[in-house]
């Protein structure tokens, strides 16, 4: 809430109360002027609560005034004035004063200024005379001269206008910028009332011609047939719809992003005109050229977006004379020197929407490095359609070449795979679109896992029991993937004891299994899973799995001295879990103490050596981290896991970081530096300095703040005071610039 709002609410509350008979208002003003922004919320709330106000205290009191900063001034307009009991704070009576040079005048002038700025422009002569009487009364109360009404209005409006021009964002949260005025060439599109023509427009058809242009400011349109001007009612077979709203850019002959509209509404055109004389040259040049335009009557304001008009020409039940050349003229009335734009569309009995054909298969499966050509041809359309290509990734690859209806992709890669579409447009009906999918062969992430006999509660491989080896590969396209198995380099075929299967692609795509029934000593050896694509062109992936008496499930531990880990913020840290067993599985790292992403933004991080490396560690990364065995490249058994504690030390975060304090000679100055966060927080010490001179030092006990007071300020006491609060990780600093009031 702004100061103006606070004053207005206070004034409204007081006046509403004074409407009642035999009532008065008593307000305690707290002088912030000598110690601005140095008040602590917790202390000011206690002080105000001591007064026992009949309303609940809100969060808007942010600071604590210094001793001696309170004063009570009573302005009593009642005919029978009464002595008021004194106000006490902590047993101390607040001094009553006859005048308050700064606060009283400032408050009254702020109230009047706010009202004058908001209402003065629409005041009648009677209103202004009544307000002038209020100003004279205010002058009598404050004992000082107040500015004239017109001067207050002009000055305040001028300042508000400057703030609007210099602001970085408007009410809608968008960044303001000065946009060049523009009027693009208009575009005419043709549509039918029932569906779209397949061959041609017939006489009984109704046709709509829509004219649109990107403009800034909003555009107006006019239609011509040949040399004849078309208007509503000029031809029974013609109707004109206006306006049919379409989104337009915001004019910045009218200050960008609604700035001028806000300026006109808030402070009126007089103050906005004055901006031209004091604004930047860029702003002056843009505004001066189009200031005379009555902008507010030519724009449509909807949820903060300026909307311009579109004109639609309706030709009812086409007649022979309707087949002609139609001109659409777009105009912004020569605003900012922008001339009119026009376009001509020839409507004939052969006018028809486009149709196309792709001379390629769908899908197209290729090897990486191949050159792919996609050919698209038009099979119909009048005027002649224009062909273009788009892809599912929003933009075509940089090295792609488009020539006519042919798109060429040289040395294609897996990243360039996707859907490619040919689009034909001639501004008649809907664009025609045909698509095909390019699939680039690829294989990656070959993995395996060993599953002991599921019918026994034992994670170990044992002679006489079943064991299954599974192999998985990610392949594109998956239907071309084939697997083969080797034992000690020799091909294996499926048999009663060695059963080879391929998993259902819907449940576990790209997976093959080798089941060894009734494991024997002679079955020990190295089994190799070989994955390949039928189309070739991609290297095979081979995965070796050793089955022997030394093949055992994993075990996971944290090395001694590696948990908890204590590091400084900004360091690089390595969290480590030791994994034993054969084969050694992939380790998955995740947060154990909360549902939060890992430092790289993912929920899990894979590690092949059991180490999680974190660069530039931050305080938010403090917590518990879980390392867990994965089934991949290991045993498909219940995961083993361990937890590593990470403690990140960081210097104290303090407030205020920087504060300017103004105080007069002989007056006290109290400076307070508070710790918000720190780790470690138990061993904290502080040092107060004026320049390089040490004033005071000590250690924190139970408190989270330290205060230094200058009892009577002298000239040597002006300068920069610093308070350094220090722990093992560093220091946080409060800075106070004490200057003359």
Total helical elements: 7
How many individual domains?
6
Uncertain ranges: 33-37, 53-68, 100-107, 166-179, 194-203, 244-308
What's the alpha carbon Rg, rounded to whole Å? 40 Å
State the helicity in percent bands: 10-25%
Biggest β-sheet: count, sense, barrel?
7 strands, mixed
Percentage of residues in strands: 35-45%
The helix-and-strand class reads: mainly beta
Mean pLDDT: 77
How many strands? 49
- Principal-axes geometry comes out as flat
Cα end-to-end separation: 27 Å
Commentary on this structure:
It contains seven helices and 49 strands. It has 741 residues and is mainly beta. The strands form 13 sheets. Strands 34, 37, 38, 40, 42, 44 and 47 form a seven-stranded mixed sheet that branches. Helix 1 packs across helix 3 and helix 6 packs across helix 7. It starts with a helix and ends with a strand.
């Amino acid at each position: 809430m702004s100061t103006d709002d606070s004053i207005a609410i206070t004034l409204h509350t007081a006046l509403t109360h004074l409407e009642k008979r035999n009532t008065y208002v008593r307000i305690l003003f707290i002088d912030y002027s000598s110690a601005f922004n140095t008040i602590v919320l917790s202390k000011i709330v206690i002080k105000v609560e001591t007064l026992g106000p009949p309303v609940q205290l809100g969060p808007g009191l942010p600071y604590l005034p210094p001793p001696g900063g309170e004063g009570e001034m009573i302005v009593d307009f009642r005919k029978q004035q009464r002595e008021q009991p004194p106000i006490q704070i902590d047993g101390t009576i607040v001094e009553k004063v006859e005048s308050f040079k700064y606060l009283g005048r400032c408050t009254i002038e702020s109230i009047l200024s706010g009202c004058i700025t908001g209402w003065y422009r629409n005041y009648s002569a009677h209103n202004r005379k009544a307000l002038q009487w209020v100003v004279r009364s205010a002058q009598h109360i404050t004992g000082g001269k107040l500015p004239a009404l017109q001067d207050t209005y002009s000055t305040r409006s001028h300042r508000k206008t400057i703030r609007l021009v210099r602001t970085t964002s408007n009410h809608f949260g968008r960044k303001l910028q000065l946009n060049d005025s523009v009027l693009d060439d208009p575009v005419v599109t043709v549509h039918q009332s029932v569906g779209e023509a397949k061959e041609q427009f017939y006489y009984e058809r109704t046709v709509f011609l829509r004219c649109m242009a990107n403009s800034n400011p909003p555009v107006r349109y006019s239609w011509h047939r040949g040399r004849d001007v078309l208007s509503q009612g000029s031809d029974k077979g013609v109707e004109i719809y206006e306006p049919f709203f379409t989104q337009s850019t915001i004019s910045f002959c009218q200050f960008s992003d609604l700035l001028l509209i806000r300026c006109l509404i808030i402070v009126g055109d007089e103050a906005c005109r004055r901006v031209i004389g004091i604004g930047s040259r860029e702003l002056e040049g843009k505004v001066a050229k189009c200031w005379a335009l009555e902008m507010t009557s030519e724009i449509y304001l909807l949820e903060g977006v300026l909307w311009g008009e579109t004109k639609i020409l309706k030709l009812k039940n086409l007649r022979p004379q309707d087949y002609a050349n139609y001109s659409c003229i777009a105009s912004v009335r020569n605003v900012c020197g922008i001339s009119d734009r026009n376009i001509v569309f020839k409507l004939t009995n052969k006018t028809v929407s486009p149709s196309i054909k792709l001379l390629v298969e769908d899908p197209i499966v290729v090897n990486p490095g191949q050159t792919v050509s996609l050919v698209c041809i038009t099979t119909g359309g009048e005027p002649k359609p224009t062909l273009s290509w788009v892809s599912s990734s929003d933009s075509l690859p940089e090295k792609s070449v488009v020539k006519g209806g042919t798109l060429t992709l040289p040395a294609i890669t897996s990243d360039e795979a996707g859907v490619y579409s040919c689009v034909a447009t001639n501004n008649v009906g809907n664009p025609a679109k045909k698509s095909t999918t390019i699939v680039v062969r690829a294989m990656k992430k070959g993995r395996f896992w060993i599953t002991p006999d599921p019918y026994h509660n034992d994670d170990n491989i044992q002679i006489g029991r079943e064991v299954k080896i599974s192999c998985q590969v990610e392949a594109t396209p998956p239907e071309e993937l084939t697997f083969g198995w080797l034992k000690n380099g020799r091909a294996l075929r499926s048999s009663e004891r060695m059963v080879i299967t391929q998993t259902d692609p819907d449940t576990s795509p790209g997976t093959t299994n080798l089941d060894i029934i009734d494991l024997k000593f002679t079955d020990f050896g190295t089994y190799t899973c070989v994955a390949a694509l039928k189309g070739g062109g991609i290297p095979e992936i081979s995965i070796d799995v050793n089955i022997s008496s030394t093949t055992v499930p994993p075990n996971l531990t944290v090395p001694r001295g590696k948990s908890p880990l204590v590091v400084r913020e900004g360091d690089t840290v390595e969290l480590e879990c030791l994994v034993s067993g054969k084969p050694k599985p992939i380790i998955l790292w995740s947060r154990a103490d909360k549902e939060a992403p890992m430092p790289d933004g993912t929920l899990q991080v894979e590690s092949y050596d059991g180490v999680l490396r974190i660069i530039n560690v931050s305080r938010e990364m403090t917590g518990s981290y879980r390392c867990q065995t994965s089934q991949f490249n290991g045993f498909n058994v219940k995961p083993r896991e361990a937890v590593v504690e990470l403690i990140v030390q960081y210097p104290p975060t303090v407030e205020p970081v920087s504060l300017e304090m103004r105080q007069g000679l002989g007056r006290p100055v109290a400076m307070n530096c508070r710790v918000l966060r720190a780790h470690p927080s138990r061993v904290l010490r502080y040092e107060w300095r004026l320049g390089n001179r040490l004033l005071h030092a000590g250690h924190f006990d139970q408190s989270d703040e330290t205060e230094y007071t200058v009892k009577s300020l002298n000239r040597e006491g002006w300068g920069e005071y610093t308070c350094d609060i220090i722990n093992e990780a560093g220091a946080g600093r409060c800075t106070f610039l004490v200057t003359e009031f």
